[in-house]
Amino acid sequence: MIDLTIIWAFIIAFAVAAYVVMDGFDLGIGILFPSFPVGRERDQAMNAIAPVWDGNETWLVMGGGGLLAAFPLAYAIVLPALYAPLIAMLLGLVFRGVAFEARWRDPGHRRWWDVGFFGGSLVATFMQGVTLGALLQGITVDGRAYAGGWWEWLSPFSLLTGASLVAGYALLGACWLIWKTSGPLQDNVRRWARRLLPALLLAIGAVSLATPFVEPQYFYRWFEWPGMLVTVPMPLLVLFAAWMCWRALSRPRDAAPFLWALALFLLSMVGLGVSIWPDVIPGRVTIWEAAAPHSSQLFMLVGAAILVPVILVYTGWAYWVFRGKVGEEGYH
To answer: Which of 15, 134, 221, 267 could be 63's S-S partner, Cβ–Cβ 3.0 to 4.6 Å?
Structure first.
């Protein structure tokens, strides 16, 4: 019999990865927003994500909904453990969405909507990183319920992962604008990308060095067979991707920096997968212990088999239609 639990684990992992890849760069643009001069450059940056930003968040809904449906025990434990950062993240996403739309329709208060767009982007990104760090460092579980305190999510490690994600999303945002814009804005974000790439590399190194010591299983999975197959080449692959991204920032091929920045994120996700597999709550609950009944998984898989291709098609179509450079007035 096919193990539907593993299939659903990969579906949710794919949805989370798609969200990080697609929504990461527009959150990054919000983080960099105060560095853009008021007027043409800010409008150009907003137009660079206007056709796709709301569709990118489809994957967040799918990841959260999939976790509830396919792994209800994990959802029941994780949600109360991470109420504070998750609520802050959602409020940040809501506020930046309102600010995005309102700045065009209420030009008299555009200054304040720009502040809201930046603040919402920063809070949402930072809290996503904090949530990841809190999950990695371990959640107190007693039987089938969360048994920790209100502030258990807050630690130096979770703050480190939060700051690291801010640097990573900002780099993605800068590289996206290198690809999609030209003129003064492109020159500005190219300079930012050259500063953010070393910062992200240091952040990846710091998180990677700290992770094996926040939960004993991580150390064994990375430094015992077969984890060693990833441990040995991973630092070299990360350094290679960072070097290629640095080179691309000095060359006229505008898409290359974004693609190499994505490579850094994908390598980090592979490392994360090696650390936690096959747990859904690291060190506490495996995917099989948290899984919904087989009949429920099968029923939901039929829907996912229809919806995921549809989402991929309309997302790909949107990116294809708006594939050119963007100016102050929109794509051309």
So the answer is: 15
Model pTM?
0.89
Kindly report, residue by residue over 226-282, the tens digit of the pLDDT.
656 666 778 888 899 999 999 888 877 788 899 999 999 888 888 888 778 887 887
Q: pLDDT tens digits, residue range 77-109?
A: 888 888 889 999 999 988 888 888 888 787 778
Per DSSP, the residues of 53-86 read: HHHHTHHHHHHHHHHHHH-HHHHHHHHHHTHHHH
The CA distance from 20 to 60, in Å, is: 9
For residues 284-323, one letter each, b for 16 or more C-beta atoms within 10 angstroms of the residue's C-beta and e for the rest, the string is bbebebbbbeeeebeebbeebeeebeebeeebeeeeeebe
Task: Give me the domain span that covers residue 24.
Answer: 4-331
261, 175 contact by CB (below 8 A):
yes
CA distance 28 to 122: 8
Task: List the beta bridge partners of residue 146.
Answer: 141
Per the structure, the count of domains in the chain is 1
**Residues 182-189: contacts with CB within 8 Å, 24+ apart?**
182/325, 184/41, 185/36, 185/40, 185/41, 185/44, 185/45, 186/254, 188/35, 188/36, 188/41, 189/32
Tokens of 157: 């490690």
Structure tokens at 205: 């190194």
